[in-house]
Amino acid sequence: MSWPTLTDRIVAAQHSMSGSAISKAVCKATTHEVSGPKKKHLDYLIHCTNELNVSIPHLADTLLERTASNSWIVVFKALIATHHLMMYGNERLMQYVASRNTLFNLNNFLDKAALQGYNMSTFIRRYSRYLNEKAMSFRLAAVDFTKMKRGADGVMRTMNTDKLIKTLPIIQNQLDALLDFQPNSNELSNGVINTAFMLLFKDSIRLFAAYNEGVINMLGKNYSQ
């Protein structure tokens, strides 16, 4: 089991002295420990997204700042924390990240210094592209496809033809970006990538369901014409 490094402890102490509870929680969720962010830190950040006196831009930007690290562990965990908040946090956070011109700019990220750095850097680049696409989908459609109502009276099953024609390609693009993550079983070798994989797996189930319901609706409309 790995433990927080001296650097992690110093940064956390600095945030404690400055009184920034959000920055401290983000720091603790994105330590150099080779494990997923701890639930208690993620739960606190989710709670923050629901507090009206909390600045969502400050929270999101603090997470984004952690992706400027040279450490694949810190950057990967910052992406995981952001994804977790996009899934379970207040929609205000999703609205903010979708409003940004750029979310993550990690296409050239490479950690040459750490064990597993080369391999994990590949997945960081792919993961960041997916989160960018997830934010873009929300920006274009004003809805999170992983959270919409499903079933016979759900959003995709009751959508009109014109909107379906615009919406289905957006879902397809998000699915394509998700499926590009594509690790094999040997590459799921640590708690960090495993945590990311589980979040992506949950998104994939919901995205496939939304897409399938849209296709069923479209086929039904064509059949009835």
From TrEMBL:
Key words of the record: Cell membrane, Membrane, Phosphoprotein
CDD domains registered for this protein in UniProt: ANTH_N_AP180
Domain of life: Eukaryota
Domain ENTH, first and last residues per copy: 14-145
InterPro entries in the cross-refs: ANTH_dom (IPR011417), ANTH_dom_sf (IPR014712), AP180-like (IPR045192), ENTH (IPR013809), ENTH_VHS (IPR008942)
SUPFAM superfamilies found in the cross-reference section: ENTH/VHS domain (SSF48464), GAT-like domain (SSF89009)
PROSITE patterns linked: ENTH
Compartments in which it is found: Cell membrane
GO biological process, one term: synaptic vesicle budding from presynaptic endocytic zone membrane
SMART domains documented for this protein: ENTH
Gene Ontology terms, MF aspect: 1-phosphatidylinositol binding; clathrin heavy chain binding; phosphatidylinositol-4,5-bisphosphate binding; SNARE binding
GO (cellular component) term, any one: synaptic vesicle
Family per similarity comment: Belongs to the PICALM/SNAP91 family.
Protein name per its UniProtKB record: ENTH domain-containing protein
